[in-house]
Each structure stands twice: as structure tokens, then as C-alpha cells.
Amino acid sequence: MEEKKIPEIKHDWKMKIMVWALWYTICFAAGVVLSVLFVTKQTEPDPTDRTVHRLIFAALAGIFIEVVLFSLVFPIILGKERKAYKETLLRIRDEGYTPALVQFMTENHLRVSADSKKVGYANGYALYLTDAAIISHDYDRALYYSDLVNTAELFRYNTIGMIMEQVIYYGHRIQIAAFTHNIPACEQVMSEAQGLYNSTKGRNPAIDYMIDGSVFEYYFAIGDLARCEALIKPYEQYEELKYAAYQSMGRVFAKKGDTYAANEFFDKAILAARNGFLKQVAENERRFALNNGGVQ
Questions:
Q1: 129 by DSSP, 3-state: which?
Q2: 289 CB neighbour count, 10 Å cutoff
Q3: pTM for the structure as a whole
Q4: What distance in Å separates the CA atoms of residue 168 and residue 174, rounded to the nearest whole number?
Q5: For residue 262, what are the CA distances in angstroms to 110, 282, 289?
Q6: Where are the alpha helices (DSSP H) in the chain?
Q7: What is the pLDDT of residue 1?
Q8: Which pLDDT tens digit goes with each residue over 228-255?
Q9: What is the radius of gyration, based on Cα positions, of the chain?
Q10: Are 269 and 246 a contacting pair, CB within 8 Å?
Q11: Based on the number of CB atoms within 10 Å of its own CB, is 94 exposed (0-12), middle (13-18) or buried (19 or more)?
Q12: Model confidence over 169-215: pLDDT tens digits?
């Protein structure tokens, strides 16, 4: 099978343009106020000329103010927080959820949670702390952090970034319920997520895997291994997704009782791991799978 790379997720330009337009409206209004100060009866005695020049002044001032806000003011105000959050995402990619990184995320989560203006960052940290807890099989801690997610803020907008976080949130809830064998709760969350899943599937293989990977856990919990295999098999072809796909397939074959095939898939996962942390996770999952029939 020819290996593929996941296409880059496109920016939501429609939303960006709407944001810029909203801020320009505010900046234009500020320009109108300034125009009254700079374009006066003394400089423009004629009322018609004065109105026209005030509008031109306001339009140009609005552009200038918006450029200053987006290029200087906002980066200064948000720069420190954005830098810390970006560092977190890069470290997750490069290191995995090491104890040092989990401590870093915990401290940042506590700090931003105290500021109501930083609820978006607090949600992001809570989602990744939930993920780290799920990987370590600490489902009480996973549920604790998942419950800290501000869902009103999470579902306020439908930008591509927010949609991804919404998918991650539902995925975590499904996984926690499935891993703790709370099938009714699992089915309830799947029902709540169905509309989002239906409208999101097909946008990008990475997002599709987040959806199918969580639904996999439901079918795994109820023992529908054929459905599990059908959900995960297509993702083995993607360079960025094959690590997780191989682990899931290893669990399926372990539960089937096919130790040889299960070990083959876990070996493939270890070879596909991009850092030592993920290699160790794959080894841990192998032990769980072969000792417990694939059950977490």
C-alpha cells in the first residue's frame, strides 16, 4: 500500500475575513471620532467637503489603527500566552506526554484558568491534560480535566481550530466512557456528537481519525471487532496516523486471540513512533493488550 501524507488543514479564511471586517468596523468608528478633531470647520469650511474628507480620514485611519492592532498591540498582549501554548504543542509532538511536559501543562492550566479572558487557552490545556491522562490509563484524572473544559466557550465558534477541539472533546468523553465500560454514557456522548461528526467527516484524514478512533473504542468495548477493524484499517496508509492505527489493530488481534498478528502490529507501531515516549506507550499497550485481551 502506497503511503500518503495528510494534506495541510486549510485556514478558515471566511472566519478570518469576518473577524477583520468586525475589527475594521470598530476601527472605522474610532476614525470617525478622530476625524471630528482633525477635519474641522476651520480646515474645511464647506459642510459637504468636510463630510467627505471626514469619511476619507476615517476610512484611512481605520486601516491604520487595525494594522497597528494586529501587527503590534495584539501580539504584545497575547504573545506570551501564545508562545507558551505553541511551545506546549511542539513539545507534545516532539517529546510526547513526558512527566516534565505534563507538569508544564498543569502549571499553565492553573495560571490561565484564573483569568476569564484566557478561557480558550484553559480549554486547550485541559484537553491535552485529558489526553495525557487517558494514555496513562488514569481515567479518573482524565474525567477531572475533561469536566474542566468550558463547553460554552468551546462550542461558541465553528472555526476549523474550534471544530478540531470539539472533536477532541467528544472523543475523550467517548473514550473515557468506553474504557470504564460505561456503555450507556458512551452511547449518549456519541448521540450528542453525531451532528458534529456528520458535518465534519471528510474534511481531513487527521480529523476523520479523531472521530473514527473514538468510535472504535465504543465498538471495541461492545466486542464488535469487525467494525473496529473496518474503521481503523484505512488509516494505516497515512504516515502521520499509522502509529495509532497499528496500535489499535494490535489490540483488535490481541482480543481475537491472535498473538502473532497482534505482536506484528505493535512492532510496526514502535517502528512508526516518532519519539521514545511513543515507543514506550506502544510497549505498554502491547502488555495491556496481550495480558487483558486488548482491554484497557
A1: helix
A2: 25
A3: 0.79
A4: 10
A5: 40, 12, 8
A6: 13-38, 47-68, 74-95, 99-113, 119-135, 139-147, 151-154, 160-179, 183-200, 205-221, 225-232, 242-256, 259-272, 276-292
A7: 52
A8: 999 999 999 999 999 999 999 999 999 9
A9: 25
A10: yes
A11: exposed
A12: 999 999 999 999 999 999 999 999 999 999 999 888 999 999 999 99
C-alpha cell at 26: 470598530
Sign of the alpha-carbon torsion through 95, 173, 155, 206 = positive
In the structure grid, which three cell numbers stand for residue 10, read together? 486549510
DSSP line for 195-252: HHHHHHTTS-HHHHHHHHHHHHHHHHHTT-HHHHHHHHGGGGGBTTTHHHHHHHHHHH
What is the grid cell recorded at 104?
508544564
As a whole number of angstroms, the distance between CA 250 and CA 257 comes to 11
Q: Does 138 have pLDDT greater than 70?
A: yes
